[in-house]
């Protein structure tokens, strides 16, 4: 028995690649299954033809023909209600003409009978025979249904084909001036004008300045359709021809819409970021990304729209806090929260992730809030964390993967919508609480005389944190998510769309995604990592020196001085420079304390120390030219002194003086030079008289005798002293 039936479309495969395939529709199958009737589609003068059923089945079996599933006339068989309402009368009128003819099966397919039937229908309804044939072809082509007789406006006007410009007649709707005042009809847009349009679209429309089409149209006329320029008021002004010789704004707008690449146009006008956020199609759901609680956490930060005061001096306004939120993708449960003044940075993200994996009872109790484990049952790590290209794109996040086996994914640049769940949470928090507390940021523009809303700040950081915790508890418990898309299993369980309810349902039915790690392991994995050097001065890190019990016990510093330095891996809390932690190769950590000589840096953060070191390096780089200049001057001065001394020495040494003679008397020369230097360097505290005192001859002779006696004694004493020194004096170091 044949599988061919009425209405099927058969496409014949041609061996020539460039030839148009033959497509025909089966109109009738002989009950004896020996032959059938078909008509070729898209052939203007096609009529039904008889074919042997066996020939078509053979062609289908050997691949020379196929059954086409897609019907090109389907869109006409199920028109929109508005189209059917407008054209129903035309369809019914055509149907009335051929209603009796098409019921004469198989006579209507017999060419010897068909002519008479068509002529009778034409006479009966007062239409031309060609009109009857036109209705019959549309009826047969469309699958032999009544709606096939609806007007084929999709074929009108040569869709997809550009119309050639004809100067003899103006295409398109005439302008009002043409109709009312018999004004010139205007011009057609030919190829040359379209090229100008394309240039204008690129230069004046599809730019980041985002001008209007009207402004772009005016710029195009001024720059490309002027017939010259004239100077008015010192300004060079373009002269435009009459309006009927210019393309109209409507033509400009028509061709822009016709040629516009919507995505490329919006991207150029608004940028890739705004297009991705506001213009892109939204076809997916973040909920479908997650299987169960802990499958995916989303994390992000925002600067809260509220100003706070200092808890120590409440008259001081400290600015706006940073709020980090960690939220579960499946249940929308807020699993982690951090409110502080850090960031947005890795430090803030570190605190939020640590909070997500910690016991919430202890966290809430620090702010005077008493809860049970059921109120906030989130104290685990997820399988995956989705963030933006900020904190979790740093090398610090690698430890989450290496130590905790958490996959870290980052959204593309400027695609905050990829984290729509957590981004939406910030809006909810603003609407629920933040915009209603003292010091909230007002989004309306301030006018003269308005009070500065920053002066309304009344809350300190602890109070605002308490408010955010209470908001989180309320949200998790009773925030009805009307828009939440339940899957089939949640529908079967009749789960209410509350975050905590969905979380508990997921724990019961889809557990296995949450992960538990010791608190110390979590904190260690979240701490930033670095490398320190073991030196004889201490464990050097960020220019500071530390020590530890193991380092002292195992004599690290002595070994480093005796052999060489080596590296050790360390973790640190950026807020506490006084302590770092050595990561042991076999696991575990050991605390290292800042040495006393670096205690001046105690109380500072790592960033402040890094800034100090960087500033010192920058200062050294700034004065490097001065240092090099001073060094050059010093070397030049030394060279000048050396050269002068070389000249003096070479002039004093005679050529006939032997080398042996020059080095023979070094000791004697040294003693003589020392005596000379001593006399030159001797201190004389008493002032010498300017005029010698007059002395009588007798007295003078007595003094001379006495002086000679003293001199002789002195020479004897000096000779003895010289002999003693000569025997005890060491060799001259220059020998």
UniProtKB/TrEMBL annotation:
One of its GO terms (molecular function) is nucleic acid binding. Residues 289-496 form the Integrase catalytic domain. GO terms for biological process: DNA integration. PROSITE patterns: INTEGRASE. Gene3D superfamilies: Ribonuclease H-like superfamily/Ribonuclease H (3.30.420.10). Residues 152-180, 651-735 are annotated as: Disordered. Residues 697-708 have a biased composition (Low complexity). InterPro entries: Integrase_cat-core, RNaseH_sf, Transposase-like_Mu_C. It comes from the Bacteria. Residues 665-682 have a biased composition (Basic and acidic residues). This is Transposase. The lineage of its organism: Bacteria, Pseudomonadati, Pseudomonadota, Acidithiobacillia, Acidithiobacillales.
């Amino acid at each position: 028995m044949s599988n061919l039936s009425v209405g099927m479309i058969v496409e014949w495969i041609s061996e020539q690649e460039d030839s148009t395939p033959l497509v025909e529709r089966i109109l009738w199958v002989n009950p004896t299954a020996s032959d059938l009737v078909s008509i070729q589609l898209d052939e203007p003068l096609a009529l039904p033809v008889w074919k042997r059923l066996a020939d078509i089945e053979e062609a289908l079996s050997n691949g020379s023909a196929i059954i086409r599933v897609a019907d090109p006339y389907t869109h006409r068989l199920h028109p929109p209600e508005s189209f059917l309402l407008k054209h129903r009368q035309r369809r019914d009128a055509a149907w009335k003409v051929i209603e009796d003819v098409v019921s004469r099966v198989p006579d209507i397919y017999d060419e010897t009978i068909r002519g008479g039937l068509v002529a009778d229908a034409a006479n009966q309804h007062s239409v031309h025979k060609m009109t009857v044939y036109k209705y019959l072809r549309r009826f047969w082509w469309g699958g032999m249904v009544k709606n096939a007789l609806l007007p084929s406006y999709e074929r009108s006007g040569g869709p997809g084909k550009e119309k050639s410009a004809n100067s003899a007649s103006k295409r398109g709707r005439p302008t009002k001036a043409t109709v009312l005042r018999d004004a010139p009809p205007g011009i057609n847009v030919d190829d040359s004008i379209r090229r100008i349009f394309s240039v204008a679209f690129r230069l004046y429309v599809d730019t980041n300045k985002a001008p209007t089409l009207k402004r772009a149209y005016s710029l195009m006329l001024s720059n490309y359709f002027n017939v010259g320029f004239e100077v008015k008021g010192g300004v060079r002004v373009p002269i435009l021809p009459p309006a009927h010789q210019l393309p109209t704004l409507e033509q400009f707008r028509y061709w822009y819409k016709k040629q516009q690449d919507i995505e490329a146009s919006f991207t150029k006008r608004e940028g890739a970021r705004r297009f991705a956020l506001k213009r892109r199609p939204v076809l997916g759901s973040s909920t479908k990304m997650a299987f169960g609680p802990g499958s995916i956490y989303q994390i992000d930060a925002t600067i809260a729209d509220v100003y706070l005061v200092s808890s120590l001096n409440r008259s001081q306004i400290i600015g706006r806090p940073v709020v980090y939120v960690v939220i579960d993708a499946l249940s929308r449960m807020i699993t982690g929260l951090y409110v502080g003044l850090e960031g947005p940075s890795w430090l803030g993200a570190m605190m939020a992730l640590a909070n997500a994996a910690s016991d919430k009872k202890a966290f809430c109790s620090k702010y005077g809030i008493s809860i049970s484990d059921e109120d906030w049952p989130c104290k685990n790590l997820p399988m995956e964390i989705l963030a933006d290209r900020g904190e979790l794109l740093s090398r610090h996040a690698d430890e989450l993967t290496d130590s905790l086996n958490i996959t870290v994914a980052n959204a593309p640049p400027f695609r905050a919508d990829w984290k729509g769940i957590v981004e939406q949470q910030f809006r909810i928090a603003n609407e629920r609480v933040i915009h209603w507390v003292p010091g909230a940021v007002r989004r309306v523009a301030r006018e003269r005389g308005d009070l500065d809303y920053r002066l309304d700040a009344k809350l300190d950081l602890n109070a605002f944190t308490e408010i955010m915790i209470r908001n989180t508890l309320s949200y998790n418990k009773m925030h009805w998510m009307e828009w939440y898309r339940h899957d089939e299993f949640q529908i079967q369980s009749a789960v209410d769309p509350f975050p905590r309810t969905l979380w508990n349902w997921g724990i019961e039915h889809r557990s296995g995604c949450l992960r538990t790690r010791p608190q110390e392991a979590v904190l260690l994995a979240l701490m930033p990592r670095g490398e320190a050097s073991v030196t004889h001065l201490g464990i050097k890190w960020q220019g500071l020196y530390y020590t530890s019990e193991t380092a002292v016990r195992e004599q690290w510093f002595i070994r480093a001085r005796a052999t060489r330095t080596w590296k050790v891996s360390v973790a640190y809390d950026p807020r506490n420079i006084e302590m770092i932690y050595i990561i042991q190769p076999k696991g575990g950590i050991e605390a290292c304390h800042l040495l006393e000589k670096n205690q001046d840096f105690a109380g500072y953060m790592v960033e402040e120390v890094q800034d100090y070191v960087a500033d010192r390096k920058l200062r050294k780089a700034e004065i490097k030219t001065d240092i090099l200049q001073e060094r050059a001057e010093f070397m030049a001065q030394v060279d000048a002194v050396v050269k002068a001394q070389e000249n003096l020495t070479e002039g004093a040494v005679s050529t006939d003086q032997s080398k042996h003679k020059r080095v023979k008397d070094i000791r004697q020369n040294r003693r003589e030079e020392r005596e000379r230097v001593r006399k030159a360097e001797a201190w004389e505290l008493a002032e010498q008289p300017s005029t010698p005192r007059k002395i009588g001859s007798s007295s003078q002779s007595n003094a001379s005798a006495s002086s000679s006696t003293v001199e002789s004694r002195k020479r004897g004493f000096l000779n003895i002293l010289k002999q003693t020194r000569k025997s005890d004096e060491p060799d001259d170091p220059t020998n």
